[in-house]
From TrEMBL:
It holds the Pfam family Glyoxalase. Gene3D superfamilies: 2,3-Dihydroxybiphenyl 1,2-Dioxygenase, domain 1. This is Bleomycin resistance protein. It comes from the Bacteria. SUPFAM superfamilies: Glyoxalase/Bleomycin resistance protein/Dihydroxybiphenyl dioxygenase. Residues 18-38 are annotated as: Disordered. Residues 36-147 form the VOC domain.
Length: 278
């Protein structure tokens, strides 16, 4: 069945893109190139407590030293100790696409019970979607969404995402698209300066972009023009890391030093990428 898509509704774009994931990979020979976001690194006062929130709310597995959560195979969130945790909207929204509307309600309720700030209660939206937003205790803003207005089956007792996406609030999505395609990413859904996303690699989140003010309004927070405090993590080979850093510098980004020892670059909007060699 065809789905109507509103380009000012990032939950609709993410859900629609998830349904075309395998087809897009097939067109690209099954491979996705470029800096796939394997994880998101977030500065917090208490990494273990931040990670436990997601273990409780999302049923996510704790990995490594217990300060990283695995979002059911759709990427990770890593928490690092910092004197200055997130204090403002980081211009990134994590969209967590679920199957049933009642799953959206259940996860929203669990988040609220464990200290999250509900920004927009979960409810039916125009054109058949169901969504809500919250700010986690660590400061990350999440959007939970389903492409259904009502359940058409039994909700899972432990809901797992169809897809996870990271939406960047940028100055101009078309300029952001030019930068990331220069690094090797493949555009999937393109609505010009309203919304653009890229084909995800298996086991990673989908990268998306939309105007910062529109993104902030959609999730119910004040916009911020300051540099984001979160960082994206990409794991790759040493040779590919060298290629990415050179391509980023040529395309208008900036190669940066990083205290963790990883190689790093920033895109033209200031979003940092940590390139970890394996």
């Amino acid at each position: 069945m065809a789905h109507l898509v509103r380009t000012d509704r990032p939950d609709r774009c993410s859900v629609g893109s998830a349904r075309r994931y395998r087809a897009a990979r097939s067109r690209n020979g099954g491979a996705v190139t470029g800096p796939a976001p394997d994880g998101l690194r977030v500065p917090v006062a208490d990494p273990a407590a931040a990670a436990q929130f997601y273990a409780d709310v999302l049923g996510a597995d704790l990995v490594g030293n217990g300060a990283t959560v695995d979002l059911h195979g759709t990427g990770t969130v890593e928490f690092v100790s910092a004197e200055h945790p997130l204090s403002r909207f980081p211009r990134v929204v994590v969209t967590y696409v679920l199957d049933q509307p009642s799953e959206v309600e259940d996860v929203t309720g669990a988040a609220s019970a464990r200290g999250a700030e509900i920004l927009k209660p979960a409810k039916k939206a125009l054109f058949g979607s169901f969504s809500g937003t919250f700010r986690a205790p660590d400061g990350l803003v999440w959007k939970l969404a389903s492409d259904k207005r009502k359940d058409n089956g039994r909700a899972a007792s432990e809901p797992k995402p169809i897809e996870t996406s990271l939406i960047l609030g940028v100055r101009e999505p078309t300029a952001s698209r030019s930068f990331y395609t220069s690094l090797g990413m493949q555009t999937d859904r393109d609505y010009g300066n309203k919304y653009i996303d890229f084909v995800p690699a298996p086991g990673t989140a989908r990268l998306c972009s939309m105007p910062g003010a529109a993104l902030a309004k959609d999730v119910g927070v004040a916009d911020s023009s300051e540099a984001s405090d979160v960082a994206f993590v990409h794991r790759t080979s040493a040779a590919e890391a060298e290629r990415l850093l050179a391509a980023a510098a040529t395309a208008g980004g900036h190669v940066l030093p990083d205290a963790s020892g990883a190689q790093a670059f920033a895109d033209p909007d200031g979003f940092r990428w940590l390139v970890v060699t394996q």
